[in-house]
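One record is set out below.
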Amino acid sequence: MAKIYTDNEVSLDPLKGKRIAVVGYGIQGRAQALNLRDSGLDVIVGARKGSSYDLAKREGFDVFPIGEAVSRADVILYLLPDMVQPEVWGEVERNLRDGSTLDFAHGFTIHYGLIRPKETVDIVMVAPKAPGAAVREEFLRGRGVPALVAVHRDATGEAKARALALAKGIGATRAGVIETTFKEETETDLIGEQLVLVGGLMELITKGWETLVEMGYQPEVAYFEALNEAKLIMDLIWRYGMKGMLERVSVTARYGGLTVGNKVIDEEVKRKMRTYAERVVSGEFTKEWLKFYKEGNIEELMKRIGEHKIEETGRKIREIIFREP
């Protein structure tokens, strides 16, 4: 059974008197920096000159070049994108002080050995299970988003306490923080993105829309059925669970969903899911991704979905649904 930490079990004391440097002021970095500051902690930002540097300054932070921010801090949140982290690592490593705590929001670069911090620093992870915008929005509402917490190396004897304090500082303990490992978080995150959250959902929705249109139904009607209502159903599942969702849709929808869904998403689909999940565990996916990152063009891959007819239909629908009143 997973260990879940809640707000009243965790203290901010391990971070009192410590300076925290948030390296990277993107969507996740900005949210965590603001939340930690609002929690009463001493936060600075490390960023390269540019839009994020300027934004952090405007929002009241002391902002330094990355290396200098690291040298000034006791706890460093390394929140640059996965593939940028190794490129900047030399600048960070040269300035890491013994006894520092290095925190990640995703275990990718540590788990796959893309960066190797020295033995004298803690390596921990606080991984919010939501985009940065939600981390900030929920905090401002007095709530939080769940997070995973892990310790890869405890050089100081305080690594876990500091990681949990960071989780509390960003508001995650309000929702619950689950203890995990870098391996489990990294592999489940990649597998979930590929099989369900990004790849699986996009293909399920797209194939459903194509089936309806190919049967002669209007693209706009198919869009509402295959995509627009998917969001409403997911909201019900998120709030009430699968059985709770079924209790809140029509009896016809219940029967159809329970008797047809598992014939479409069947054991053969599950077998394929396992095949691609094993590529993550073996490291094969990471090798492929590293090679593509150096040689490929992600925009070329995105063209396929960007040029799909469902997007053409969706743009028209969204202009109507989300137009300003």
